[in-house]
Write a structure and sequence with these properties.
Blueprint (H helix, E strand, L loop, with lengths): L5 H6 L9 E4 L6 H15 L7 E5 H14 L3 E6 L6 H10 L2 E4 L2 H8 L8 E3 L6 H10 L3 E4 L2 H10 L4 E6 L22 H11 L3 E6 L9 H19 L7 E3 L8 H18 L6 E4 L3 H4 L3 E13 L2 E6 L9 H4 L7 E2 L9 E7 L8 E9 L6 E4 L22 E7 L1
Parallel strand pairs: 1-17, 2-17, 3-4, 3-10, 4-5, 6-7, 7-8, 8-9, 9-10, 12-14
Antiparallel strand pairs: 2-11, 11-12, 11-16, 13-16, 14-15
Helix pairs in contact: 3-4, 7-8, 9-10
The structure holds pyridoxal-5'-phosphate.
Length: 410
């Protein structure tokens, strides 16, 4: 970080410094009220802003980074780009000193374009296309994950200088929002054979990674996974392999009280299982933690139908757009009208549809809202994780058309 406060560094960051940044006051206002009033000022001062947009608060990322550093001082965060690849978010994280978890050629290109050094990137996709591995080789990204023998052979062919992290399957029963263990990770009995496969090919295994699942609630999964990681370190030593030096504890973190609890579990488990290996570099791959609460969506009411006491509204973002998180990430929407509620205001049982002509495109149903009109706005909080990055162009509604206002609260 270069001079000044972290916020100053973020404002000068690539991906941020060429954007207009709106300042707004958090003051005595509750956080949500502050964002709400910023959104109000955007819609009143820019009459051209007649479609859905985001507000991204850089100060949130600065705060979350500080909290991470305090809670997990020995774990370097390598932000998982897939969670939200917005260049201003990536740039802010560059300025704060994060590393990056990339899963594809395009993600590696995006972070390199922001000035990130290849050594600060972990290519954390256990199963990669050959052309993408060759690209990693060209640009010098030399650390990737694997959980199959096929992958070792491919890395040997396409990028023999690359080092590996053996991805372990996370523990069961983490009560997670999104389970990744159904797809990735070596089973305990596969660990030794996978280590031997790398040894045979002469590819160095630098360490171990895991991902307990996104949005983990049962935090003991971190302890169990760290214990299993230590067993894999010991298995490599028993095979006469060079000492492992990287432990990648993956992502799954949720900002707030659960994060503090997770950090306590992790610090305890690191002391217990890795206390005798002080040279091991510990990294994490948080995605949701940094992105989720920093983005707020405002969607505009573009249509309305009244059926007796029932109200139906159409808005200009939906399940095929950034609200795909309802289906893909189990996001539970609690939209609130942008207009201040009036005391004693009557509410109606309402359905809110997305804009496409598909009947699956329903945002909420049986939801209580005051009477709204075409041109009114609904606000969705905590919309930064697995939203814009996974939207489509279905039916001619392009997710990338949703404008993102970069802002910072103080
Ligand atoms: C998606 C993913 C992450 C980020 O997970 P979060 O739950 O958003 O923290 C980290 N690492 C890998 C390998 C991933 O696939």
């Amino acid at each position: 970080m270069v001079g000044g406060s972290p916020m100053q560094a973020v404002l000068m960051a690539p991906g941020v410094k060429d954007r207009k940044v709106l300042a707004f006051k958090r003051d005595a206002l509750k956080e949500k009220d502050a964002v709400t009033s910023l959104i109000r000022s955007i819609v009143t001062s820019s009459p051209d802003q007649r479609s859905a947009f985001y507000v991204f608060d850089l100060a949130k990322v600065v705060d979350l980074f500080r909290t991470w550093r305090r809670a997990l001082p020995d774990v370097r965060p390598c932000y998982a780009v897939k969670c939200n690849p917005d260049p201003a978010l990536l740039g802010a994280l560059v300025a704060l000193g994060a590393g990056f978890d990339c899963a594809s050629r395009a993600e590696i290109e995006a972070v390199l374009a922001l000035g990130v050094q290849p050594r600060d990137i972990v290519y954390a996709n256990p199963c990669k296309a050959e052309a993408h591995i060759e690209y990693a080789s060209e640009v010098g990204v030399n650390l990737t994950t694997y959980d199959s023998e096929e992958e070792v052979a491919k890395v040997k062919r396409c990028h023999p200088k690359c080092e590996l992290l053996l991805r372990l399957k996370g523990p069961e029963g983490g009560e997670v929002r999104v389970d990744l263990g159904t797809k990735y990770g070596a089973l305990p009995e596969e660990v030794a054979p996978l280590l031997r496969a790398a040894q045979r090919e002469g590819i160095n295994v630098a360490g171990v990674s895991f991902h307990v699942g996104s949005g983990a609630c049962r935090l003991d999964v971190y302890r169990e996974a760290i214990e299993a990681a230590r067993a894999a370190f010991d298995a490599a030593a028993a095979l006469g392999m060079p000492p492992m030096r990287v432990l990648d504890i993956g992502g799954g973190f949720v900002a707030g009280a659960t994060f503090d609890e997770a950090a306590t579990v992790i610090n305890g488990a690191l002391a217990e299982h890795f206390g005798d290996l002080p040279c091991v570099e510990v990294i994490g791959e948080p995605g949701r933690y940094f992105a989720e609460s920093a983005f707020t969506l405002a969607a505009r009411v573009i249509g309305k139908r009244t059926r007796g006491e029932v109200r139906e509204y159409w808005i200009d973002d939906g399940l095929y757009g950034s609200l795909n998180c309802i289906m893909m990430d189990h996001y539970v929407p609690h939209p609130r009208p942008l207009a201040s509620p009036r005391p004693g205001e009557k509410t109606y049982t309402s359905t809110v549809f997305g804009p496409t002509c598909d009947s699956l495109d329903v945002v909420v149903t049986g939801y209580h809202l005051p009477e709204m009109s075409v041109g009114d706005w609904l606000v969705f909080d905590d919309m930064g994780a697995y939203t814009t990055g996974a939207g489509s162009n279905f039916n001619g509604f392009a997710t990338s058309d949703i404008k993102i206002y970069v802002a910072y609260s103080s």
